[in-house]
Specification:
Blueprint (H helix, E strand, L loop, with lengths): L1 H17 L5 H4 L8 H14 L3 E8 L5 E7 L7 H6 L3 E6 L8 H15 L1 H4 L5 E6 L4 H5 L36 H13 L3 E8 L8 E5 L2 H4 L1 H21 L4 E3 L8 H4 L1 E2 L8 H6 L4 E8 L4 H35 L6 E8 L5 E14 L6 E18 L2 E8 L3 E4 L4 H9 L5 E2 L4 E15 L10 E15 L4 E4 L5 H8 L25 H14 L1 H13 L1 H4 L2 H10 L14 E3 L2
Helix pairs in contact: 5-13, 10-13, 16-17, 16-19
């Protein structure tokens, strides 16, 4: 009898393990998504029932709640460095960056449960570690409503796009205005993924597909890794999704125009976006966008199919992806030239088969004006031009090192959070460096994610001997973070720290002159410097506006004099090139 009772307890325990509660999505027949509390409770129970699952808190978010990381590791190491050294392929899935787009939240919960509890699926992840951020934007997830996704077909209620401080987190990956992003840095560098996936929902146009993909732009990723994304990874994803009766197409990057009108272009994932940020560390990034006009249940199932397809590719190509990642990293070395910004070229295109709906122009019953109407009674299959080639618009050579005065601690703090290696000067030193003077730039007229960004930046470079203080930072570019350093510290970079206003104080002059006093000093300067007098007279002769503006003339002389402050328009990050 005792033996029977013991056996019964074992069977009950095994049964309990196999019966990890279903998700909210499953129990509601695909109509609902989990709240933040329900999602975390689910993962906690999953970890309790399965020793191959681990859940941990990492960092803090703007909501006051910590970020969570859930890991499936059949070896039960839960040590990503150890998994990396074993040659395991590491996949990081980020969900709920926009909590009104919860498809990935639900798909990931079912994915981890099934791959730890079903023997056939468990076999597929022997050499793979899957890490999941259950809900990245916790503040947005707590802000539940049923109306902010005006065009979306389910779920019944969901979170809001903005975080606890109303930031769009998928614009914050470089500037890191939020605690969420700083916590993500800790997760990302801890996990060090080979493949990164960010799950989203979008509209933009109407078409037959439930899901679209947005890979890291292959030209921008560059090297053999960029070629692999274009020629191997993406085609494999498309083939595997088709085999699952869930066709996928490139993200349809249009607004209020049918995609078959002129074709459509790839979206450029600059470093402000998640996959643009992960590209700075040569991680293969993939953003998926399910179509908000499709039912929630179908969208979640499509997301699940995508994640399974990635796991299959990781099984076969994991070692290759790791090798390509490391090779691309080695290409960012001192003295090599690389792009800082890109533009789309329409001189090249790829022909793709696209399944859409006829877009018609009809009279709006609301405005009385012409409007776009997608006629679902008129589906089509056409060959369209897909423009996915980008060319550099700005290139620079990577210096041997950057020198950063310690007073710019906000920048230095972000470098530290991104695992940047550095040294500090042990004594006051005079060093010959390349210095940038900001020559031209434009500032946006409207606010964007809390910033009036700088763009179209042009600099004038010169070599000077600059005095640095003990404790200032020397950042070698011969390190894994080289590309991150290059694209954030070069002011002409599309998402550089200069672009995001980290150095705007240098753009404002701090000292001026009193004209009635400086008149005499200006005359003395012209008398003492014949070359200055020559340039000044030439400018008056050739430029009528300058000739008629007495203050501009005095200001010109002032800015050529020793009285003019060196810090004005002088970029405070220095390049060590020799």
């Amino acid at each position: 009898m005792k033996r029977f009772i013991s056996l019964l307890f074992v069977l009950l325990a095994l049964s309990a393990k196999a019966q990890t509660p279903l998700t909210v999505f499953e129990t509601s027949n695909g109509l609902k998504t989990a709240t933040y509390e329900e999602a975390i409770t689910y993962y906690q129970q999953l970890a309790k029932d399965n020793e191959e699952i681990n859940i941990q808190e990492i960092g803090l978010t703007d909501s006051g709640f910590p970020l969570h990381l859930v890991t499936l590791d059949l070896d039960k190491d839960f040590d990503f460095k150890k998994s990396y050294d074993k040659g395991k392929t590491i996949i990081l899935i980020n969900n709920g960056i926009h909590p009104g787009e919860p498809d990935g939240i639900e798909a990931s919960m079912m994915l981890l449960r099934n791959y730890v509890q079903q023997a056939d699926k468990k076999e597929l992840v022997k050499n793979i570690v899957i890490a999941v951020i259950p809900i990245y934007n916790i503040g947005g997830a707590l802000n539940r409503n049923s109306f902010s996704r005006a065009n979306q077909d389910g779920p019944e209620d969901y979170g809001f796009r903005g975080n606890a401080r109303n930031f769009d987190l998928n614009r914050d990956f470089i500037k890191a205005d939020t605690r969420n992003t700083k916590a993500f840095y800790e997760v990302f560098h801890k996990v060090n993924p080979d493949i990164f996936i960010d799950t989203h929902v979008s509209n933009g146009a109407d078409y037959q597909y439930t899901i679209t993909h947005l890979a890291t732009q292959h030209n921008k990723m560059g090297g053999a890794l960029g070629d692999y994304i274009l020629s191997e990874f993406t085609p494999q994803i498309e083939q595997k999704m088709k085999a699952r009766n869930c066709e996928i197409t490139p993200y349809v990057n249009v607004f209020n125009t049918p995609p078959d009108q002129d074709g459509f272009s790839q979206f450029l994932d600059q470093p402000r976006y998640s996959t643009g940020y992960t590209a700075l560390f040569n991680t293969l990034g993939f953003m998926i966008e399910t179509h908000m006009l499709k039912p929630f249940k179908v969208r979640v199932e499509s997301t699940y199919s995508f994640l399974e397809s990635v796991i299959e590719i990781a099984q076969n190509d994991g070692a290759k992806i790791r090798e390509l990642k490391l090779a691309r990293q080695q290409e960012y070395k001192p003295g090599t030239k690389h792009a800082l910004d890109w533009r789309l070229t329409r001189s090249e295109s790829t022909q793709i088969t696209f399944k859409g709906y006829e877009g018609e122009k009809v009279t709006s019953t609301v405005t009385g004006q012409e409007r776009l109407y997608y006629n679902r009674d008129k589906p089509f299959t056409k060959t369209l031009s897909y423009y996915n080639t980008f060319v550099p618009t700005e290139e620079m050579t990577i210096p041997k090192a950057y020198i950063i005065p310690q007073g710019w601690y906000k920048v230095i703090d972000l470098l530290k959070l991104n695992n940047v290696a550095f040294k500090r000067l042990s004594q006051d030193s005079s060093i010959n460096v390349e210095v940038y003077k900001i020559d031209k730039f434009n500032t946006s007229k409207t606010v964007y994610e809390g910033h009036y960004t700088n763009n179209n930046v042009k600099v004038i470079a010169s070599n000077e001997t600059v005095n640095f203080r003990k404790g200032d930072y020397i950042i070698s570019t011969d390190q894994p973070a080289a590309r991150y350093l290059f694209e954030t510290l070069e002011p002409a970079g599309a998402d550089s720290f200069f672009s995001w206003n980290f150095f705007d104080t240098i753009l404002q002059q701090k000292e001026y002159f009193s004209p009635y006093v400086f008149e005499d000093q200006a005359q003395q300067l012209l008398d003492a410097e014949p070359e200055l007098r020559k340039e000044f007279n030439k400018k008056k002769k050739e430029e009528p506006d300058f000739s008629n503006n007495w203050y501009a003339q005095l200001d010109y002389i002032y800015k050529k004099s020793p009285y003019y402050e060196a810090a004005h328009m002088r970029y405070p990050i220095y390049r060590l090139v020799d």
